[in-house]
TrEMBL record:
Source taxon at top rank: Bacteria
Lineage of the organism: Bacteria, Fusobacteriati, Fusobacteriota, Fusobacteriia, Fusobacteriales
CDD domains, sorted: HTH_XRE (cd00093)
Membrane spanning stretches: none
Pfam families: HTH_3
Name of the featured protein: HTH cro/C1-type domain-containing protein
Molecular function terms, GO-annotated: DNA binding
Domain HTH cro/C1-type as annotated: residue spans: 13-67
Gene3D superfamilies given in the database record: lambda repressor-like DNA-binding domains
Database matches in PROSITE patterns: HTH_CROC1
Source organism per UniProt: Fusobacterium pseudoperiodonticum
């Protein structure tokens, strides 16, 4: 990843919103927020808040990865992102797990697991393995839902 060439979250949000045919007001209605706030986020005047980000992921499920990467670049310090880049070729799952989960609140951990589950579910649909894995997916989802 080249940190210097990354677009800010607002620019990515604008691309996603327009690609999906949403105006400020349409998106504002979908995520129950004032349309001017979206405009300010897109222009880089206001930072994205976690609740709005979570709602955006629900509205634009096909753009989750793009939004999540942009959000990561928006909220993580540059040196942390560089460290993540170094990990992309690592097979040290325990180290990665600790790095990702140790500094997150319980709610953030649950949201991360939900996002991972959503991705897994989409991949199963795409690969035609959803029916085969449906029982396991339901078990995983129920365990995530029970987390506090």
């Amino acid at each position: 990843m080249n940190i210097e060439n990354k677009k800010n979250f607002g620019e990515i949000l604008k691309e996603v919103r327009i690609k999906n045919g949403d105006s400020f007001r349409t998106l504002a209605d979908k995520i129950n927020i004032v349309f001017s706030y979206i405009d300010k986020v897109e222009k880089g005047i206001r930072p994205i808040n976690k609740e709005m980000f979570s709602r955006l992921l629900n509205v634009y499920p096909l753009d989750k990865k793009k939004l999540m990467v942009a959000y990561t670049f928006e909220v993580f310090p540059e040196n942390a992102i560089k460290d993540l880049d170094l990990l992309k070729d690592s097979n040290d799952y325990e180290f990665i797990y600790k790095f990702l989960f140790e500094n997150l609140s319980a709610e953030e951990k649950k949201n991360l697991l939900k996002n991972m589950y959503d991705r897994l579910e989409v991949d199963c649909y795409k690969n035609g393995t959803y029916e085969k894995n449906k029982e396991k997916l339901n078990l995983i989802k129920s365990k995530i839902d029970k987390l506090k």
